[in-house]
Amino acid sequence: MIILGIETSCDETAASVVHDADQPNDRILSNVVLSQENYHRPFGGIVPEIAARAHLQNIDRIIEQAMAESGIEFDQLDGVAATAGPGLIGGVIVGVMSAKAIASVHGLPFFAVNHLAGHALTARLTSDLEFPYLLLLVSGGHCQLLVVDGADRYQRLGTTVDDALGEAFDKSAKLLGLGYPGGPAVEERALEGDPSRFDLPRPMAGRANCNFSFSGLKSAVRRKVELFGGDGPAPQDVADLCAGFQAAAGEVIQDRCRQALKIYRKMYDLQPRLVVAGGVAANRALRRCLADLALQEGISLQAPPIGLCTDNAAMIAWAGLERFRLNGEGDSLDFAPRPRWPLDPDAPPAIGAGVKA
Ligand code: KG4
Ligand code: ZN
Q1: What is the pLDDT confidence band of residue 355, given thresholds at 50, 70 and 90?
Q2: What is the largest CA-CA distance in the chain?
Q3: Is 346 a member of any domain?
Q4: Strand 143-150 with 133-138, pairing
Q5: Residue 357: count of CB within 10 angstroms of its CB
Q6: Distance 23 CA to ligand 1 centre (A)
Q7: How many structural domains is the chain composed of?
Q8: Which residues line ligand 1 (CB under 6 A)?
Q9: Which of 34, 58, 326, 331 is least enclosed, having the fewest CB within 10 Å?
Q10: Contacts of 182 (CB under 8 A, 6+ apart)
Q11: Cα(321) to centroid of ligand 1, in Å?
Q12: Cβ atoms of residues 217 and 260 within 8 Å
């Protein structure tokens, strides 16, 4: 089974061909990602209109490149998958229309993939992981704990009541003058910093539910920055604040996962498997916190290779392939792109988090 995947929901224009080889290492035949960082950097964040235009400008050649690098011809494909939501709708439309056009010209099934399912299933692309597992999904737009019971079966245990973790990284980076994209910049500066110098909060730690809240942590960073007055914090102060922020985020993540594991253990009489996914899963300090937690809890932890944590199309092609296994017909070409698309539509809204998909 060979699937072409297309990803355009945020600021990466990406295309990839994957197939269902027995060996996880052999599954990705091509994986082309064009980052729009340079388009958005002057604005300090993603500008949706610019993102949509840049996707439109680049999508054809990125798909061509992914096909050429895979050595696969269009008539050898078994299906075409594209992110159909959630995301910035202008970009999503570009990817979905491209996939529908290819599917109709070549008579292939079209798979409208949920971007979050792409992140959620990445660990099954890169290893032989089986269902069920507990998923920590941490990206720029989402921060959730989910039980994944099948490629189309998700139960949300918790979500953020305000900012996503990636959003808090990005906003804190901006406050510290580190620019966009903020997460990798905070991680780098934190390497030189003292995590214990500044007293920062651990929001939600110890709560009985599995929800997150990160806007208070970001505001605490802002208040510390304001204390420096006119010239702002010096480079060492910035490094210490980055290290402090990351340490606080890591502790909160550990605490929330520990809480979710309690619930998971009541649901399944199985040794829990913890999986982390999404752009923030690229952060090495957080990966270490999760590895420590896994050790303490005696459970296994799967973290995808760093390059497959941030947005890419291999995860979308793979999610399409998993959909194909469930139902090879695919979706109607009438499928309308969705700006919001929760993985677990039955999850009750967390207070103030209804808009977080
Ligand atoms: O999954 P992703 O590429 O896009 C979304 O679906 O949101 O995640 C992007 C987010 C951004 O907020 C970015 O700052 C964050 O992931 N991120 C990181 C790191 N690399 C990316 N955050 C912390 N440390 C990193 N190394
Ligand atoms: Zn993403």
Answers
A1: very low
A2: 63
A3: no
A4: antiparallel
A5: 20
A6: 28
A7: 2
A8: 10, 139-141, 166, 169-170, 181-184, 187, 278-280, 282-283, 310-311
A9: 326
A10: 169, 170, 171, 172, 173, 174
A11: 25
A12: no
Distance 298 CA to ligand 2 centre (A): 29
**For the chain, give me the number of helices (H) and strands (E)?**
10, 10
Strands 28-35 and 79-85: unpaired
CA–centroid distance, residue 268 to ligand 2 (Å): 28
Is 338 among the domain residues? no
The amino acid present at 112, given as its one-letter code, is A
| Domain of 38, in residue numbers | 2-124+308-327
Of 7, 32, 11, 2, residue with least CA distance to 96: 7
Task: Specify the pTM.
Answer: 0.96
210 shares its domain with 256: yes
Residue nearest to atom 16 of ligand 1 (CA): 279
Residue 315: nearest ligand to its CA? 2
Whole-angstrom distance, CA of residue 61 vs CA of residue 186: 33
Which residues contact residue 187 at a Cβ distance below 8 angstroms, ignoring those fewer than 6 apart? 242, 246, 283, 284, 285
What is the 3-state secondary structure of 210-258? CCECCHHHHHHHHHHHHHCCCCCCCHHHHHHHHHHHHHHHHHHHHHHHH
Six-digit token string for 299: 């459970």
Give the tens place of pLDDT for each residue, 62-96.
999 999 999 999 999 999 999 999 999 999 999 99
If asked whether residues 50 and 117 sit together in one domain, one would say yes
Same structural domain, 102 and 251: no
Q: What is the pLDDT of residue 165?
A: 98
Q: Yes or no: say if 205 and 255 are a contact pair by the CB < 8 Å rule.
A: yes
Which ligand has the shortest distance to the CA of 285? 1
